[in-house]
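The following record pairs a protein chain with its ligand, adenosine monophosphate.
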Amino acid sequence: MSLLVVGTVAFDAIETPFGKTDKIIGGAATYAGLSASFFTDNINLVSVVGDDFPKETIQGFNDRGIRTEGLQVLAGQKSFFWSGRYHNDMNTRDTLATELNVILSFDPIIPDSYQDCEFLMLGNLMPSLQMKVLDRLQERPKLVVMDTMNFWMETAMEDLLKMIARTDVLTINDAEARQLSGEYSLVKAAQKILGMGPKYLIIKKGEHGALLFNNEQVFFAPALPLEDVFDPTGAGDTFAGGFIGHLARTRDISFDNMKRAIIFGSAMASFCVEKFGTERLLEITNDELENRVQEFVDLVQFDITLV
Ligand code: AMP
């Protein structure tokens, strides 16, 4: 029984009010896989890179228990590249470049050893490729979580809607929820999006936390007020990796356990933003994670008597 993580493995160039990077390692599956590796060691990766991608990084995935038999390295081709610039509030960003490169010729092959997939994290990727992965699994996983972004709403809406209809949990940010639904109110947006097929919807609101909806219930988790936010890149994928990592570790997909999964995901994301790229994620210790989860509990705990 394993967790399959799919999505981009990439180079990013990032500008924030605190600095600027050249090409560093990024990608949705990179962040989601590394984050999930804190919760379970049974992780399989499906993605694609060019031969410009560092072998040490792939070795680093393996060292953290992420198997890479399904990570294709395409000779003579360039890895996916994304570049973004954050505004002063760090909650909004402009995409400066999206170079699909290897993604354009990617045919996701699922190794036989991956077929025992119980949890599927379809990280941000071309929706037709996300769909191919699901089609190529002999049995539908117990839980399919998918993430996407505005880029695919603008370039592949038809495929995206087909993929959303086949997913159990959709995670998107507040601006994307508004774009997808055409509704400003997030409650109305959630109703509309749940009508598109997913059983659960998570709306990520950056420094304002995250909302989990199904047709009957809503849960809200705050984000920790942090002193230093250097780079929000990958926070959404890190959140998703922690979320599904906790569910895969406990093998419990009840709404109550999803609430706990959201807290674990939020805790992981709160580390991610403290340094550029994946740097902080790679340093987290179990004690730090435990303390941070406790900070979440303390943040929202209060006594109240209704008169
Ligand atoms: P996040 O900040 O969680 O939205 O994710 C940022 C990561 O997503 C970066 O590391 C990028 O490499 C990756 N990314 C950016 N645009 C796309 C896209 N259109 N499809 C897939 N991955 C993307």
